[in-house]
Amino acid sequence: MEALIRKEDIIDFFNERASEWDARLVRNEAAISYILDAAGITEGVRVLDVACGTGVLFPDYLKRKTASVLGVDISSSMVEIARNKFARTGVDVLCADIMETDLSACFDRVVVYNAFPHFPDPAALIERLCGVLSPGGRLTIAHSMSRAQLDRHHSGAASGVSVGLMHEDELATLMGRKLAVDIKISTHDRFIVSGARA
């Protein structure tokens, strides 16, 4: 069932926090590296980063020599920062609702990093993202913290713009309707569910 989260509230929430986002960011480098390995982020792949924010993972994609990166985010303030930071790198950033924008390209890798609970209809999101995967492409939904940590994190100011992170088994079942799910991890510092399109 779709949660009662208003898109306008999500936009406002992230627009208000965009200017301080990078300063408050704490990167778990080991978890991020593990997530990118699980996501198959390797040289030559075309990446779609959904809810990319200020481009937290863009340097990692570039370091791994991906063929292309498209970041999509609904917050115009987040997108403006990402564009300014990565203007000369070849990364493209689009301000749009991923559920509504027309993406003509197909992608080898689609990543939703630290953002999944902000989508009120997970089944519709997965359906949408599977539709832009190339044959053999991989969708990865991941967080660099545990499910319990994330739910605590979202219980404060973000409670009105997020839903609880579903159990990894439930998410794997949902993704398994469209993908061959072969990675399902939930530990003290990471949450990853990933599957490939046949």
TrEMBL record:
Ranges of residues in domain Methyltransferase: 47-137
Record's keyword terms, sorted: Methyltransferase, Transferase
MF (Gene Ontology): methyltransferase activity
Keyword Signal: no
GO BP terms, alphabetized: methylation
InterPro entries, alphabetized: Methyltransf_25, SAM-dependent_MTases_sf
Pfam family, one: Methyltransf_25
Organism domain of life: Bacteria
Record's protein name: Class I SAM-dependent methyltransferase
Organism expressing this protein natively: Teretinema zuelzerae
